[in-house]
Fold this protein.
Amino acid sequence: MFEQKKQDLNFDDIRPYYDNEYQTVIKKLIEVDQLMKAIQMYLPELSQVEIKEILLSFHTIRDFQSKMVCRIIQSLINSSSEGFTYDGFQHLDKHTPYVLISNHRDIVSDSALVNFCLNINDYDTCEIAIGSNLLAKPWIKDLVRINKSFIVKRNIPKQELLEASKNLSTYINHTLKDKKQSIWIAQREGRAKDGCDKTNPGVLKMLGLCTDENLLEHLISLNITPVSISYELDPCDALKIPELLNKSEGKEYVKSEGEDEYSMILGVQGKKGHVHVQFGIPINEEIKQFSHIKNKNELLKNIADVIDREIYANYRLWNSNYVAYDLLNESTKYATNYTAESKQQFIDYMNKKLSNFTGNEKAKQLFLQMYANPLINCESVAVK
């Protein structure tokens, strides 16, 4: 049934660009002054003329990613982090496509770092799910699609939502089964602004919309693999406080114009401290135990819990997490994990980031909670 339906579906409005479209698209993009200036900022050793010549010399998306995009990401890692590490490739087979589901902290960096790791280890990069709400300008849409991103339609009329979700699900299945390409998708819509990484079962439900067959068997066929992305510092931490304050008071938060775009830029360029990406173990074997569960919502909740446990177990904790936990709880429980100097450094960092919230104890509490929550989640796994 899926094969038959697939022939009738057209993914042109959401899919990434093909190799034979690269030259047409890149010729448009090199005329975008804002983009050329941004690339030159990351690669100051090149003139804009040289950048354009290099971009025009590529004829495949693979060349564009490996020779330009990854070069830019390496530059960003050098300028925005105090050290970048990764691990877990022993769990991944180069010839097997996976659905890589990660925690979601940064709009751009999360997927960029995952693909950077894949590329430098000579794996095919994955296709990336990105929300249409982040594509404010036509050239941004072109840029992400030339970088192997497919579009998740957001803010569409309710009556169109189910059909769009089914089409997305079918596209993801087609990408894995027919194109033999891995995909990356966040564990939830929107970043975990409070630092509490939790998989939304709705993401898993969407993955299953393309089939009328056994849901568990279908999800097993996708080779779902959790990925943990750990940032010592979040460049956008203070930007998230107003929304968290509103939420704590039961108020609606309305984003200001350009807020997402600013968060994208700051998230990429801002100081992150140490960063670690850990590829987990595919969950196929573990979720086979749920074959007796007939209720779909219960099944999806159990699978989401498995993903969460794997993400928590592989999360790399930093000084910021230990210090925040002890400050939040007025304890010394994790005092052996940091020095007095590193504790003071974090306090100074927090005070600087919260300069617009001076005297607001709730803002301080939310800031500390943001950094303490990963540790609290890791504790929950250790206890079990």
Observations:
- Residues 361-383 form the longest helix (23 residues).
- Confidence is low (pLDDT under 50) at residues 1-8.
- The beta strands are 81-87, 99-102, 127-131, 149-152, 183-186, 224-231, 273-279.
